[in-house]
Amino acid sequence: MDTAPRHRLPIAGEAPPERADAARNRRRILDAAARIVAEKGTDALTMNAVAHASGIGVGTVYRRFGDVAQLLSALLDVREREFQGQFLAGPPPLGPGAPAAERLRAFLHALVDRTTEQHEILLAAEVADPCAHYTSPPQRARQTHVAMLIAELRPGVDAGALAEFVLAPVSPSMLHHLIADRGMGVAAIKSTIDESLRLYGFG
């Protein structure tokens, strides 16, 4: 039975290497789960549906992930690790090497894409526990990164608090409101982010 912890979102200690066949099965299961969520929504995600879509026995799916909640957590974990790798060590302007203002803008644009990509799962998690959104390891990593860039741009300000304000418009619930209620597209949201950065004096 897989005894990996249910929540492995932050980049920290790496898990022991998987056998090649176990890694392939894990990837097939996660790919199938991602397709189901993208095409039919989280309500359609069941262990039986994932087993059928991946071509892997339902017993193996259960042994690998335990339940749907763990499967959703793993889906977020994979994409979050990729995203963190991009802004921590990827090419500029999102990664190191560009001026702080360019990195901040690139980060917020990339976060819009990241949030809308898995919007349904992220929104469901935020609705279930709104406070956890602000204290989760991924959000703390984002807040730390944005605060670092703000401190470089505006020495002497409370960069940590200001980072919370800068990140607030990119929360899953805010993006849901902007897209569903105000009818804004991703390009319009990014343009509004650029304008807000100019108002903050970061543009």
Automatic annotation (TrEMBL):
Pfam families reported for this sequence? TetR_N
Where the record puts its DNA-binding region(s)? 46-65
- The segments labelled Disordered in the record are 1-22
Protein's UniProt keywords contain DNA-binding = yes
PROSITE patterns registered for this protein in UniProt: HTH_TETR_2
InterPro entries linked to this entry = Homeodomain-like_sf, HTH-type_TetR-like_transc_reg, HTH_TetR, Tet_transcr_reg_TetR-rel_C_sf
- PANTHER family named in the record: HTH-TYPE TRANSCRIPTIONAL REGULATOR RUTR (PTHR30055), POSSIBLE TRANSCRIPTIONAL REGULATORY PROTEIN (PROBABLY TETR-FAMILY) (PTHR30055:SF209)
Record keywords: DNA-binding
Which organism does this record belong to? Answer: Streptodolium elevatio
Q: Which residue numbers delimit the HTH tetR-type domain?
A: 23-83
* The protein, known as: Helix-turn-helix domain-containing protein
